[in-house]
Amino acid sequence: MAGRRPGTGEYPLDPETEPVRFGGFEIPYRAAPYFTVKKTVEYSEEEDAPRQKKGGDTEDLYNDDYFECEGEPEPRGLGTDEQHEVEGPALKDDVEYDAKKKIWFKLFHVPSMLHGAIIGPGGSTLKAIQTELDCKVTVPRRGTEGPIEVVSYKCSSGVQRAVERIELLVIDSRARKPYTHFVSIPANQEKIMKKYKELRDKVLSSDHFSEDCRNREIWCKPNKLHLTVAMLCVLDKQEERLAEEALDKAVDEGRERLPKGKHLKVRIRGLDIMGDDPYNTAVLYGKARCDKLQAFVDGLAISMRKAGFAVQKKLSDQGPVKLHMTIANVRHSEGTRRHIHAFDATGILKECGLHDFGELTFDKVVINVLGKETPGGGYAVLYEKTVPLA
């Protein structure tokens, strides 16, 4: 069952592109979310013929000292003066072949803000790839959109290896970018928000608790309550669509881990902190424990990492998802007159440590947009996927 874009009521169409498969080269959990671009090749008699050298072969435009290709026969059936939509089903590693120009090539998408990682200082990285792998790499000019193109006059292997090299560069560059979105399970359900407000108001109105934790700015807005599944780095509209498709697929595949014929109920009960010093707390959260949900979200997080969007910035990102509902975070006070860096949570943990927020009905997964809010004060939603009943 496909999800929908908020406010449209429309289900996404199948994309016109497919994810690139990197044959023989797999990046665990976070392969870059590239996709090939179907290219329509048109031939005409007026088209300039490729430069020829003696013997009738296309001129070798690149030095072959650095990279040798095993002999590859030219693919058959692509050399007529007709229009072809080249998809390369019979070509090695999905690299496409233009029989008229006698070139192997691949086109794929990389967000423009990551192009610099491919080019390198003064073009040094791009030159190294082209020289070492004996191919031509074309990157769109600054300020323009378009696919990356890799071309070889020798073999498909050179193209594929260049694409793999570019993938590594892009993965590294993406990991340095700030998060833009996150996958969550909304917890802003009426009963849970009511129980949350009871706890928050009790702390804010009582001098039994430290002054810092009575700072209203650090407490979450009720409409923003959620269980975090994965932090994402999604850099343009095309990647947004790919992230939606990845979430669709992951939810449908993970449905078998959930109860049959009904939505899972998850109790959120008890308080804990991020870190191990309650006297200097940055994040206070409600604990959610459910083996079935844990298995589901772990699979979901792995799928988003494999799709290339849930970037691993630290070693702990590789472990199981920590099921939690943040209720207070000092970051919420940034930019306010009452900004603090930590608060003393010992009183809250002692007096309210077993607070029961009630049961969460797990019926959807959402991709939220960081830094944007709805008119009601919740996180803006890029995409919402309903969890289907089996």
Automatic annotation (TrEMBL):
Residues 102-171 form the K Homology domain. Residues 41-83 are annotated as: Disordered. The keyword RNA-binding applies. Residues 58-72 have a biased composition (Acidic residues). One of its GO terms (biological process) is regulation of DNA-templated transcription. GO terms for cellular component: nucleus. It comes from the Eukaryota. InterPro entries: AKAP7-like_phosphoesterase (IPR019510), ASCC1 (IPR009210), Cyclic_Pdiesterase (IPR009097), KH_dom (IPR004087), KH_dom_type_1 (IPR004088), KH_dom_type_1_sf (IPR036612). GO terms for molecular function: RNA binding. Keywords: RNA-binding. The keyword RNA-binding applies. Residues 73-83 have a biased composition (Basic and acidic residues). PANTHER family: ACTIVATING SIGNAL COINTEGRATOR 1 COMPLEX SUBUNIT 1 (PTHR13360:SF1). This is KH domain-containing protein.
